[in-house]
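re the bet — no i am not wrong, look at it urself. input seq straight from the record:
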Amino acid sequence: MTVFGLGNEWRCDDGVGIEVARRVGGRVLEGEPIALVDALADEEDAVVVDAVSSGAEPGTIFRFEAGDEPLPAPLFGASSTHALGLAEAVELARSLGRLPRRVLVYGVEGESFGFGQGLSAPVAEAADRLTQEVRGCTRST
């Protein structure tokens, strides 16, 4: 199972997916989520981690099985810091027949998406918890 971390580490909490992917030896996809479409094509199972901005408490972790149903666009849609959101990239992969049979998607509610590096305290704590959870997922497959 490959872990993909999305985001932009120069936009504070938007780098949480990258941070988790690096910790577990996954693949970093900086920039637009459209790169995920090709990256998923050769995978049987995948984990994707990205930051979200839904208004929930910073550090909240959302978990979805994208292989079963579409991701909630308001959470992972183009309203993120990306031009094309993760939800649209996953649905494009699905329509092109490139979506793996199992895709676990984690979204971490960010606190700060301004310019700069480093995660806010609640997002850093969530990254610690999520790193452990993702390691458990990758061992059990």
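see?? The chain is about 35% helix and 20% strand. told u. also The longest strand covers residues 45-52. so pay up
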